[in-house]
Amino acid sequence: MATSQKLTEHYLTCVICSDVFTNPCTLVCNHTFCRKCVVNYTKTRPEAISAKSLLCPFCNKMTKVSAPERPVEEWADDVKPCFVIQGLLDSFGPGSKDTTNCSYCKVEGETTPASVWCYVCDDALCGRCVKVHSLIPATRHHDVTDLSGEVKVKRRRTVMCKEHTDESIKLLCKDCKKAVCQTCCTIYHRKCESVVSLGVEIRAMKAVLTRATGNLSRRKDEISKEIETKKSKLEDETCRFKQMESDINSAKVKAIERIKLREKDLLDQLKEMSDKHLGQLKADIKSGDMSVQMYQQQAELIDQALQSECDMDVYEMYQGCEAGDVEAVGDSDLKERERIAMVRQYTDKLSKSLDDLQLGEIDVLYEGVLDLKTTPVSQGTTNALDLKMTPVLQDTINLREMKAALPQPKDIVGLRGQRVTPVLQGTLNVTSERGKCKAEPWDVVAIVVNGIDTVVVTDKSNHSVDSFYTWNNQQGHSELLLGGSPYGITKLTHNQVAVTVQDAHQIVTVQVNPDLVLLSTIKTNKRYWGITSLTPSTLAASSQSPCIDILDMAGNVLRSICPLQEGHDILKRPDFLCTTRTGNILVSDNGSKCVMCLTHEGDVVFKYSPTGYTGLACPYGITSTSKGDILVADHNRQRVIYLTERGKFVKELLTSQDHMCYPYGMCTDEKGRMYVCQRNGVIQTFLCGN
């Protein structure tokens, strides 16, 4: 009891209000005060207001606030308390024990409601026991608090450690992501750098859960509205399809009637034509037979005249030939050819009219339904990009300089004496000095969130994903730290992206607000590098197995693509992926120095692997436009080349003269802009349209 009283008097009391800490906060000088007290004191000091800082009443050292544009009353909201102070408050302050029933009566086996709390004894007392408590000389001067009304302390549920059953869980190891007791912390987490009081993190956790609840409720309402809309549409479409079926049947009946009428008309015409034509042919045959007999008789008479010994017989026959007694048949042969040609022309016309018979068409338009059998929207496409124009450098984001300007985190001495670094959950603005020197943007996507143009980049050296945007004429930057090196990034929805963290065997999904919020972590069996979104529920990710896997959003492999050529694997090191406008997968393979286009089944549409000037030295980033054109970043040759949809070389779009410095990933947006990540830590923006 004496220990509790001393702790309360000497360590848990605010020197400004001389009372036990209420919502404490620890300044950079390690002095702790009530938030309200330190804010009220700061208000009285103009130099602190002008410096946008909280002023320590002890040493006058100023603590910069994270959001100086907010009211002064809110400056201390983001300043966390020392977890030692918070732990002592949780252990020895009101709320650490049961305040509902009298502690002394409970020992006697009775249950009596408590009316006061003794800070020295750390016990709750009923009305009868408090009288005895006040009569005992050793306890009559103890500080007690009335638990009735608004000042009553809420009871807290204490969770005991499973291994050390006499100790409660009060600490959180953020490195191991595990809640532990004091003994577990001392034994198993001596080398962990970030161990904080569980109570310190509860506020942030509740905020995250509150936002999650709001998001789930909002999403539930949205889906419910969509379901009602779909139900209404189902009824309308059912009626419309029945009407269409009726129209088709009606059209069929009308078409059949017209065909039958036309059939009768054509058959009648054919019979009339055939009778006339066949009659002409029969007459021609009979006339031909008569002509044959006549020609034979004339030939016999000529032979007789030639064999005759009388010259007059020869002369008379000669005169008969000169007079035209022998008729020619050329004209009748010409007429015959004309009649046959006329019949052939008519039958050709009949065949063509049947081929051209139109009974209508059904055009199907899919709305909001995406699967691998339909044509998805290509990843990284644009409608305004004009590759015939010369790209113009519009903007440059220097990731290294931006991170070098961020404040360094302050070290705080932990409960066990080691140095720990407090880390803000969610969106972070700090990195280590070591990471700032090696900021390396690897891949990039450009999205529009609430009308704000946002560029999202993976920084594999700092193990982070960064977003850059401009809002209210001010540049914004958000950083989300991950558990490993991020590589590929792809757009899932209008405000969500997926990122591969290959060394952690993870794919994480991130919401862009445009500040970054971690949504989920998907564990995978392989280390994935490149990634592209095929549909909102399916991804394609490349590993150095080498292969490309088609995954669902739970990380399950739906299909593996390992194309072969002459019995050997085509893929060697597929670092970057992209989806075309037709739904195929573009692969930039640094191992085989080529770019290839694959179907979902693994068939090779084309493979671009020339040599010489048009060849690729080190293909990295790849993207496709809405017109199907392909852009490839050739890392070692410091250029971006332009290919057709069929993989034919067009030209060098950007070179080292355009400030290309070993490009990595790249993408385009809807406004004709192209973004290129480079090894020197910058992301360049080029305008390729009006």
Description:
The chain is of the alpha+beta class. A four-stranded antiparallel beta sheet has the order 11-38-37-36. A four-stranded antiparallel beta sheet has the order 14-15-16-17, with no helix packed on it. β23 and β24 (547-552) form a beta hairpin.
**Strand order within the widest sheet?**
11-38-37-36
Q: What would you call the shape?
A: elongated
Count of β-strands: 38
Largest sheet: 4 strands, antiparallel
CATH topology grouping of the largest domain: Neuraminidase
The CATH superfamily of the largest domain is known as TolB, C-terminal domain
Strand content: 25-35%
Secondary-structure arrangement, i.e. CATH architecture of the largest domain: 6 Propeller
Q: Which segments are poorly predicted (pLDDT under 50) over 5 or more consecutive residues?
A: 150-157, 327-342, 363-383, 408-436
Label the structural class.
Answer: alpha+beta
Measured as a percent range, the helix fraction is 25-40%
Tally of helical segments: 12
Which value, in Å, is the CA radius of gyration?
45 Å
Mean pLDDT: 80
How would the blueprint of this fold be written?
Layout: H1 2-10, E1 24-26, E2 32-34, H2 35-43, H3 46-50, E3 53-55, E4 62-64, H4 83-92, H5 103-107, E5 116-118, E6 123-125, H6 127-135, E7 144-146, E8 171-173, E9 178-180, H7 182-188, E10 195-197, H8 198-307, H9 311-322, H10 330-355, E11 392-398, H11 399-404, E12 412-413, E13 419-420, H12 433-436, E14 441-449, E15 452-459, E16 464-471, E17 474-481, E18 486-493, E19 496-501, E20 506-512, E21 516-523, E22 528-535, E23 538-543, E24 547-552, E25 557-561, E26 564-565, E27 568-569, E28 574-579, E29 585-589, E30 594-598, E31 604-608, E32 619-624, E33 630-634, E34 639-643, E35 649-654, E36 663-668, E37 673-678, E38 682-687
Antiparallel strand pairs: 1-2, 3-4, 5-6, 5-7, 8-9, 8-10, 11-38, 12-13, 14-15, 15-16, 16-17, 18-19, 19-20, 20-21, 22-23, 23-24, 24-25, 26-27, 28-29, 29-30, 30-31, 32-33, 33-34, 34-35, 36-37, 37-38
